[in-house]
Amino acid sequence: MLNSKKLIENVVLIDLLQKAYSAEKAAAFAYQGHAGSVKSADEKKR
Predict the structure, then answer these.
(1) Does residue 11 contact residue 17 with C-beta atoms inside 8 Å?
(2) Cβ proximity of 36 and 44 under 8 Å
(3) Summary count for the chain: helices (H), strands (E)
(4) Backbone angles phi, psi at 3, to 5 degrees
(5) Residue 38: what pLDDT?
(6) pLDDT computed for residue 46 by the predictor
(7) Contact in structure between 38 and 44 (CB atoms under 8 Å)
(8) What integer pLDDT is reported at residue 1 of this predicted model?
(9) b/e map of 17-31 (b: 16 or more CB within 10 Å)?
(10) Phi-psi region of 16 (alpha: psi -120 to 50; beta: other; left: phi over 0)
(11) How far apart are CA 4 and CA 17, in angstroms?
(12) Which residues of the chain have pLDDT under 70?
């Protein structure tokens, strides 16, 4: 059985991991959107 301190630590960790996942997912969508909007071959190479 988890004590209350351990439970709070787990809740905090879960929240942090969910936020990190959401941030990474948003960054991936932004990257894909930018990559799709680039027309110049020179710019695509960068």
Answers:
(1) no
(2) no
(3) 2, 0
(4) -80, 170
(5) 83
(6) 66
(7) yes
(8) 62
(9) eeeeeeeeeeeeeee
(10) alpha
(11) 20
(12) 1-2, 46
